[in-house]
Design a protein that fits this description.
By secondary structure, this protein is of the alpha/beta class. 48% of the residues lie in helices and 12% in strands. It has a 6-stranded parallel sheet with strand order 2-1-3-4-5-6, sandwiched between helices.
Length: 222
C-alpha cells in the first residue's frame, strides 16, 4: 500500500472525503493542496528531499481566485508531475465525463486511474487505490470506461495546433489565413481552414469556436 500521498483538490468537502478513504486504507502520511502550483512545488520539494510521494490524487478543474497561477488545471499538473517523477502513481478524481479528455490523460500523462465523482465514488476510490498500489493495472470508473475504447481516425497535427493557438489569442479566421499565406504555411485557403475547424469541433465535440478554444485550453493544448 502507498505510504505517502498528495491530494490536489480545492473543495474542502471532497478533500475530507478523500482523506477518510486514505485513513480507512491505513495510509497515515498524506498532505493536500488547493492549488495546482502548490501541489507541484510539494512534489518537487519531496523529490529534492529524497522523500517523494508515491501517489498523487488530483481533481481536474480548479476555480481561479486572486492568486496568480502558472498551472491552471489538473490535466496540466499531472503532465508536469509525470515529467519530473516518472514512477509516481497518479489517480485523477473528477466529474469529467468527456471521453477525449479522459483518453488524453491515460495516453499523454500515463495516469494510473480515473475515478469519476458520483454516488459510488468512495468505494471506487478504495478499489482504485488498492489496485494501482499492488499492480501495474489501470483503473477507470465503469461509467466512462468506454472512453479508452473509442477510436477516431482524425489526428491533430502542428497546423491544427497553430490554428487553435491563434484563435485563443483572438486572431480571426481571415487573419489566420493571411498569416499562413505570408509564412507559406499550408493549407492556407479559406475552405481548407474551415474544413479543419469543422473537424476539430467534431473531434472535441465543441458547440462552437469559443467552446473549442476553451476545451483546448483545458487540455493544455494552447
Amino acid at each position: 500500500m502507498f505510504k505517502k500521498v498528495l491530494i490536489a483538490e480545492d473543495l474542502d468537502a471532497i478533500n475530507l472525503g478523500i482523506q477518510q478513504v486514505l485513513k480507512d486504507l491505513d495510509i497515515a502520511d498524506f498532505q493536500h493542496s488547493k492549488y495546482c502550483d502548490e501541489a507541484f512545488l510539494k512534489i518537487r520539494a519531496a523529490i529534492n528531499q529524497k522523500e517523494p510521494y508515491d501517489l498523487l490524487i488530483s481533481d481536474l478543474s480548479f476555480k481561479a481566485d486572486h492568486r496568480e497561477i502558472k498551472i491552471a488545471s489538473g490535466d496540466e499538473l499531472v503532465q508536469k508531475v509525470r515529467e519530473i517523477q516518472p514512477d509516481i502513481k497518479i489517480l485523477a478524481y473528477s466529474v469529467e465525463d468527456k471521453s477525449y479528455r479522459i483518453k488524453s490523460l491515460f495516453e499523454n500523462a500515463d495516469i494510473d486511474a480515473f475515478v469519476i465523482k458520483g454516488l459510488n465514488s468512495i468505494e471506487e476510490l478504495k478499489k482504485a487505490i488498492h489496485l494501482i498500489s499492488t499492480s501495474n493495472e489501470k483503473f477507470i470508473s465503469t461509467e466512462v470506461a468506454s472512453a479508452l475504447k473509442e477510436k477516431n481516425n482524425y489526428e491533430i497535427d502542428d497546423v491544427d495546433i497553430k490554428i487553435l493557438k491563434f484563435l485563443s489569442d483572438g486572431t480571426s479566421q481571415d487573419e489566420i489565413i493571411d498569416i499562413f499565406k505570408s509564412t507559406d504555411t499550408k493549407p492556407n485557403s479559406k475552405s481548407a481552414i474551415e474544413k479543419r475547424l469543422s473537424k476539430l469541433k467534431d473531434f472535441f465535440k465543441a458547440n462552437n469556436t469559443v467552446h473549442l478554444v476553451a476545451i483546448a485550453k483545458d487540455m493544455g493544448i494552447v
